[in-house]
Amino acid sequence: MLVGVNAIFLVPSAIMAAAANVTLNTGVLFQLLAGVVFAGNPQAQVIMQAYGSNFIAQADNYISDQKMAHYAKVPPRAIFRAQTIAVFLNCFIFIGMLNWMVENFNRGTLCTWENEQVGSCPTNLVEY
Question: pTM for the complete prediction?
């Protein structure tokens, strides 16, 4: 369903972003759909909202980069290649940074899966 709704709104949103530099905000639409489909399940609603809005936002960013490249007379394939390489590198950089943070800042206060109260960690200390 999420892919279907995004597919319906993707082309008009991309045309609006390319022609008028105005983006289509689908956040309210996804909140409404998530509330109807996943009534009483707040985690599912938040996940649907995040993925749904992020899909359109990423497409709008891609279109705006292509528009800038067109004005600068940069070939579209070069922009696509640069964005693909950047996303690929970003995956490894983010995971490396996350692992470094867990290794260096874990003083026994991070939650673990063995915690009896999954989702809440009452033993965490906040240091000011």
Answer: 0.62
Cα(69)–Cα(72) distance, integer angstroms: 5
Q: Which residues, including other chains, have CB under 8 Å from residue 24's CB and lie 6 or more apart?
A: 9, 12, 13, 16, 17, 56, 60
Letter for the amino acid at 1? M
Q: How many CB atoms lie within 10 A of CB 35?
A: 15
Sequence-distant (6+) residues with CB within 8 A of 46 are 34
CB distance 5 to 32 below 8 Å: no
Torsion of CA 72, 74, 77, 81, to 10 degrees: -90
69: tokens are 């490249």
Residue 72, helix vs strand vs coil: coil
Q: How many residues does the chain have?
A: 128
**Residue type (1 letter), 36:** V
Count of other CB atoms within 10 angstroms of residue 45: 19
pLDDT one-digit tens code per residue, 75-110: 999 999 999 999 899 999 999 998 888 777 766 556
